Amino acid sequence: MKNQNILYIIIGVVILAGGYFFLSESAPVPSREAAASPVVELKNGDTYDLTAGYVAKTIGDMRHAMLAYNGSIPGPIIKVAQGAEITINFKNNTDIPALLHSHGVRMDNAFDGSQLQQKEMKPGESFSYKLKFPDAGIYWYHPHAKEVYGQGLGLYGAFIVAPADSDYFPPVNREIPLFLSDAPIENGKIALDKDMASHSLMGHYGNVMLINGEDAYNLDAQTGEAIRLYVVNAANARPFNFAIEGLKLKLVGADNGAYERASFIDSVVISPSERAIIDIFIPNAGIYEIQNKTPNRVYALGTISAKSDHPDISYAREFDALQTNQGTIQSINPFRAFFDQEPTKHLALTIDMGGDQMPMESMNHGGRMAQESPDGIEWDDANQMMNRMSNAGSIKWKIVDRDTGKENMDIDWTFTQDTPMKIRIFNDPDSMHPMQHPIHFHGQRFLVIARDGAEQTNLAWKDTVLVKAGETVDIILDPSNPGEWMAHCHISEHLEAGMIFRFRVK
Ligand SMILES: [Cu+2]
Question: For the whole model, what pTM was predicted?
Fold first, then answer.
């Protein structure tokens, strides 16, 4: 608690002394209105043009300048078959640097779209990404440069990879991607700054909730319809506890494909960049509210409006059955021998403050965060002033290799291809600001096998794991994909505040 006091004091001092607390002019609202997201089916060998640029989008009763891929938020829903290879000709038509990162896709290293592989693309530049999709499920593309601003303004889109095995997922009537996000709207403007990284402490928690870029999202449905929801958290920082009032959720998949076993749940926590594949069945006509159900507050995110007409085919029986996924179980089997081994690598998540440490009792908010997040997750921004005033100059978020003491980009691990690695990640509860961090590994997949020593019994392949404040998580990394890759916190503001390291697979 004492450390937290010091943190808040220091941030206050830095800000009051520096006085750099402003927003640059937001981009002018263009005449081009955001379009509806198209569904684009690409075959093996196809090429597709994708351009990032400004659009006008109405949120609430205000038109805003937002960013979009091919003019829609989310960008095109790109459907491919498992195993397909496609080429995306990406053009940066924005006024900020850009990279196209295809999140969770185990593509060749050269096309990862991070700063390790290519220089950030200037406005007007183009790059061709050759992507291959070895895994079924939901993946997504987003910027890996100026992410706080670009992704926060709407740069995100989906890859839906149809399984090679048609029985991989249970049958449904329809598939719908749902991008969860939020926008920080102040004085009628989206308060994201192109030129300055602010809110480095917690990240931007928006005050307007969005699904697929809409503040009043509605999905029309039929009674008796089974719908697969591909839910993606595209927010910069906010974790969601996804629920639909009056409906049970059937959790069938996660980041990189199906769970070993489908399960019925009331809600699921989805942190930035994580995905949940959720089947629902509409029992009756009516309105169902999509919610972010946190311990202190329920946020309305949108609605499902079910009419009384029925679909031609009913999958009611398939929905009620809880399928076992042999493909996932068999893909995990070779890794089980490693579950009980001692971890080879140990990471700690923590924070550092720059500058002189000066006491200033008036800024003392200590202890508050911990009290408001007894479950180790900050569901909303309870310290808005402190958060707003923090920036990448005053705060350094850190991933520490506990075996060597190295931090962030000084960490340089080398893994042998196809040799599983057990990594223990500890989120220090005594740091100056303990909070949850979604840790993402590029280009690989992993299993979350234990939380605080408790064995996880229903697994799915993942590329991001939420580590709560105080929590210890064990993962088994499958270093299947050679090259030089990044691992980082997927709170965009934490990434920009240094919370990143590199590893090689040889
Ligand atoms: Cu973080």
Answer: 0.93
**Residue 397 C-alpha to ligand 1 middle, in angstroms?**
7
Distance CA 258, CA 460 (A): 6
Domain 39-162 CATH assignment equals 2.60.40.420: yes
| Region 335-505: CATH code | 2.60.40.420
The structural domains of the chain, with segments of one domain joined by +, span 39-162, 174-326, 335-505
pLDDT of 82-139, one tens digit each? 999 999 999 999 999 999 999 999 999 999 999 999 999 999 999 999 999 999 999 9
Q: Give me ligand 1 centre to Cα 495, in Å.
A: 7
CA of 400 to the centre of ligand 1 (A): 13
Instruction: Tell me the CA–centroid distance for residue 438 and ligand 1, in Å.
Output: 6
Tokens 């870029």 correspond to 213
Over the chain, what is the mean pLDDT? 92
| CA atoms of 87 and 47, how far apart (whole Å) | 5
Contact 249, 265 (CB under 8 A): yes
Alpha helices in 42-196 (DSSP H): 147-152
Whether the pLDDT of residue 18 is over 60: the answer is: no
Measured in angstroms, how far is the CA atom of residue 431 from the centroid of ligand 1? Answer: 13
Mean pLDDT, range 142-167, rounded to an integer: 96
Contact between 3 and 430 under an 8 Å Cβ cutoff? The reply is yes
**pLDDT the model gives residue 367:** 40
Pull the structure tokens for residue 289. Answer: 């509210």
Q: How far is the CA of 498 from the centre of ligand 1 (A)?
A: 10
Whether 174-326 and 39-162 are alike in CATH topology: the answer is yes
How far is it, in rounded angstroms, from Cα 360 to Cα 5? 9
CATH architecture assignment, domain 174-326: Sandwich (2.60)
- pLDDT tens per residue across span 412-450: 999 999 999 999 999 999 998 999 999 999 999 999 999
When computed from its CA atoms, the radius of gyration of the chain, rounded to whole angstroms, is 22
* Three-point CA angle 315, 316, 318, nearest 5°: 65
